[in-house]
Amino acid sequence: MINQLVSKIQKTGAPIVVGLDPMMKFVPEHIQQAAQKEFGATLEGAAEAFWQYNKGIIDAIYDLVPAVKPQVAMYEQLGIPGMIAFKKTVDYCKEKGLVVIGDIKRGDIGSTSEAYAVGHLGKVDVWGKSYYGFDEDFVTVNPYLGSDGVNPFIKVCQEEKKGLFILVKTSNPSSGEFQDRLIDGKPLYEHVGEQVAKWGEQCMGDNYSYIGAVVGATYPEQGKILRKVMPKTFILVPGYGAQGGKGADLVHFFNEDGLGAIINSSRGIIAAYQQEKYASFGAANYADASRAAVLDMKEDIAQALASR
Amino acid sequence: MINQLVSKIQKTGAPIVVGLDPMMKFVPEHIQQAAQKEFGATLEGAAEAFWQYNKGIIDAIYDLVPAVKPQVAMYEQLGIPGMIAFKKTVDYCKEKGLVVIGDIKRGDIGSTSEAYAVGHLGKVDVWGKSYYGFDEDFVTVNPYLGSDGVNPFIKVCQEEKKGLFILVKTSNPSSGEFQDRLIDGKPLYEHVGEQVAKWGEQCMGDNYSYIGAVVGATYPEQGKILRKVMPKTFILVPGYGAQGGKGADLVHFFNEDGLGAIINSSRGIIAAYQQEKYASFGAANYADASRAAVLDMKEDIAQALASR
After folding, report:
1. Can you tell me the distance from the alpha carbon of A66 to that of B236, in angstroms, rounded to the nearest whole number?
2. For chain A, how big is the Rg over CA atoms in Å?
3. How many angstroms separate the CA atoms of B305 and B308, rounded?
4. How far apart are CA B115 and CA B132, in angstroms?
5. CATH class as words, domain A2-303
6. Which among A203, A183, A199 is positioned nearest to A191, based on CA atoms?
7. Which residue is closest to B113 within chain A, CA to CA?
8. Which of B46, B134, B181 sits opposite A183 (nearest CB)?
9. CB distance from A46 to chain B under 8 Å?
10. Which of B172, B182, B195, B236 to mutate to test the interface with A (most CBs of A within 10 A)?
11. A298 to A41, A219, A264, A304: CA distances (angstroms)
12. B8 in contact with A at a CB cutoff of 8 Å?
């Protein structure tokens, strides 16, 4: 799957992943009204609105980008109907040929981590028959519990030829509270990064490991260091756009081959029509605004990489 | 909710939480067969087997213990049907008067953590109507992302009078890889414990905070230290029984008032009938075996506390 991700990045020229993180305030009025008319003011109605909103965006951008990253929390807040919308979104993106990174940030130990891995990446055995639960291509994983928590995910990735992005240095302001604390003269995130590189060695695709890392765009200096600590690790970079990261901040996350990183933007793309810059599209054409925002982001990153 | 948990512990005399972590190998043949007959070898069939299995156990133990802790991963691995079984289990336990600790180990940032908090503890607004997604009483939270990740959970807890158990020192063998690393002469878990105590100060019930901590029974020495670092924090202690923790290991997790800790056992209770000690119950009476195992565990903890 990492080879597929790399080849799709090369084909599209866009090291970009679109975060499908729906919030009702982003969903255009006409979609909200149609969903409410059909299902009423219910969880089913809200889930339908999310799904129709996603579908419009996916249809508008699937040929431009290699991957999408649905954030499961946004769906999980709607209970069962939300989880159904999550699954519909994952399935539809895969139909459209997109690589799907499930942003689930799960992490537990032993048989529990195994259950998460099976549920999101692998197949569960039911009396001799096999079923996928949610069937993403990659998932994000929290490393706080150590190898016991990560190894079951790695095992399923090896079986299914799928992959992980493990949290190393997150994009939020308070990520330093624990992640930046110095241990033997080096911050915790660097130790985690070293461990990710080690886990990744047993899981190599052609040029990159399918055990990747998450490092926030909002911390470019740390990205520079981690790029060196984890040379064969693909880095998923959240925090571009709405969280304050810019194209120029991103260059150090990439290797000399122009690969090694994939930049996420969520509301900057999916709610583009609400920005002044794309307001002329109007809510009715929100998906076209998203398409324009992807093209602009692609250009911003390409320019930054060209001028480094 | 922390007051309710404390009063239920005092009423039952059992500082015990039963982990409802179903695995098919624990489910008695007759339940598996009935579910398969009704739904075939499908995810729905497996989910039905888990639910019926849980229901038997809940009916047999609800008067003995204050709380249960369903592990969402075990349900999530069955996709949507599994999540439906999770919700059914949560709802049924609440009907029976049990405090429900959702073992979800979620943790993200900002609006994403808020979505998890809303989905599992709070209410989501759908066009002016409010709905609970999964509606547990407490959830477990991963602190790796710092305050940005935890504060949205705290906010929802304050609104809903619910609570958290934040991972501090987990019970697994490799928990030390990151959690034990020394920072300014103290292990990371102690720093996290201090932060949990600080978060908890703003969230006091009568005698304990509703922001609790998770500390594994397999690390009694660390439990002793953390008990002092977090005097007002309720500690959820996994690792008793199957993971190797014994009654005698547990005494240091409790305060002088005999409170402050709640001990989890999962397979030691729910799969008791598979142990030699309870084999005479037989698979047909698996729930009675679970009841006997709860009574034995209660006795083991009471003896350990009496002889300290």
Report:
1. 43
2. 19
3. 5
4. 12
5. alpha beta
6. A183
7. A73
8. B181
9. yes
10. B172
11. 38, 20, 11, 10
12. no
Question: C-alpha distances in angstroms, B19 versus A40, A84, B61, B265, B270?
Answer: 37, 26, 12, 6, 8
The partner residue sitting opposite B116, judged by closest CB among A76, A144, A172, is A76
| CATH H-level superfamily of B2-306 | Aldolase class I (3.20.20.70)
- Under 8 Å CB-to-CB from A165, ≥6 apart: which residues? A101, A138, A139, A140, A141, A212, A213, A214, A234, A236
Residues 6+ apart with CB under 8 A from B296: none
CA distance A63 to chain B (A): 27
Residue type (1 letter), B58:
I
State the nearest Cα–Cα gap between A14 and chain B, in angstroms. Answer: 26
Neighbours of B110 (CB within 10 A): 17
Contacts of B164 (CB under 8 A, 6+ apart): B138, B139, B140, B141, B150, B153, B154, B157, B210, B211, B212
Q: In this structure, what DSSP letter does residue B133 have?
A: S
Contact across the interface for B80 and A84, Cβ inside 8 Å:
yes
Closest residue by Cα to residue A178 from A188, A193, A191, A165: A188
Q: Show Cβ contacts of residue B95 under 8 Å, excluding neighbours closer than 6 positions.
A: none
Q: How many cross-chain Cβ pairs, A to B, lie less than 8 Å apart?
A: 225
Radius of gyration of chain B (CA): 19
Is-catalytic flag, A105?
yes
Angle at B88 between CA B125 and CA B5, to 5 degrees: 80
Residues in chain B with CB shorter than 8 Å from the CB of A34 are none
CA distances from A36 to A156, B123, B143 (A): 40, 18, 37
Q: State how far residue A229 is from chain B, nearest Cα, in angstroms.
A: 17
Q: Which residue, chain included where needed, has tokens 């087997």?
A: B49
Strand partners, A213: A166, A235
The model's pLDDT over B160-173, given as tens digits with 9 standing for 90+, comes to: 999 999 999 998 88
Q: What is the pLDDT along chain A (308 residues), one digit of tens a residue?
A: 999 999 999 999 999 999 999 999 999 999 999 999 999 999 999 999 999 999 999 999 999 999 999 999 999 999 999 999 999 999 999 999 999 999 999 999 999 999 999 999 999 999 999 999 999 999 999 998 889 899 999 999 999 999 999 999 998 888 888 889 899 999 999 999 999 999 999 999 999 999 999 999 888 899 999 999 999 999 999 988 766 667 788 999 999 888 999 999 999 999 999 999 999 999 999 999 999 999 999 999 999 999 88
**Which backbone phi and psi does A198 adopt, to 5 degrees?**
-65, -50
**Which residue spans within chain B are E strands per DSSP?**
16-20, 67-70, 99-106, 123-126, 129-132, 138-141, 163-169, 182-183, 186-187, 209-215, 233-237, 261-265
Selection from B304, B298, B238 nearest residue B66 by Cα: B298
Helices (H), A40-146: 43-61, 72-76, 79-95, 110-120
Distance from CA of A130 to the nearest CA of B (A): 9
What are phi and psi for residue B295, nearest 5 degrees?
-60, -40
Q: Which of B69, B76, B150 to mutate to test the interface with A (most CBs of A within 10 A)?
A: B76
